[in-house]
Amino acid sequence: MAKIFLARHASPDRDRKDIPYDIHPGPPLSPKGEQEAAALADFLKAEGVQKLYYSPFERAARTAQLIAARNGIPATEEQRLAEWREADEKRELVHERMWLVFEELVKASAELGPVAVVSHGGPITFLLLALGLGEATVTELKMKFDRYNPLPPAGAWSAEWKAETKSWELNLAFVP
Description:
It is a single chain. By secondary structure, the chain is α/β, with parallel strands linked by helices. Helix content is about 40%, strand content about 20%. It has helices at about 30-45, 60-70, 90-110, 120-130, 135-145, and strands at about 5-10, 50-55, 75, 115-120, 155-160, 165-175. Strand 2, helix 2 and strand 3 form a beta-alpha-beta unit. Helix 1 (about 30-45) packs across helix 2 (about 60-70) and helix 3 crosses helix 4 (about 120-130). The protein is globular.
């Protein structure tokens, strides 16, 4: 059995116009983002998450560091969870790198219990589609949340393997 949480980083400081959003390190978290990360930490603790993996971008790394410290769990930086560089990274490559990470997460979850990633809306979109969430549902969600993302800042999807149906059950599990 595997249960994986796909979390988006908390709210970044969008007032920082001197730091490109999609180029590493990207902007830091805003004060609101720090609060959102704490709320996400409490949710993931209640879900029994045992380990985190996170994007190297500052906003995702800080979100994960706050969660790990608050919950006393290990967190590992994973380059392949980075933000999608729409201008020069093909969709297929984002899908491929995210899927490879997801396969590793399935193995980790089988050993440890629930695990979580802290990534970005674009890359999470590719995983949700690959796991069977319909394009229409993804589009509807993108219209609901900020900046055309399928979840809000510090929001989390759960992906749980259901052996009886041999499929992933997807739920928008946390909205701060």
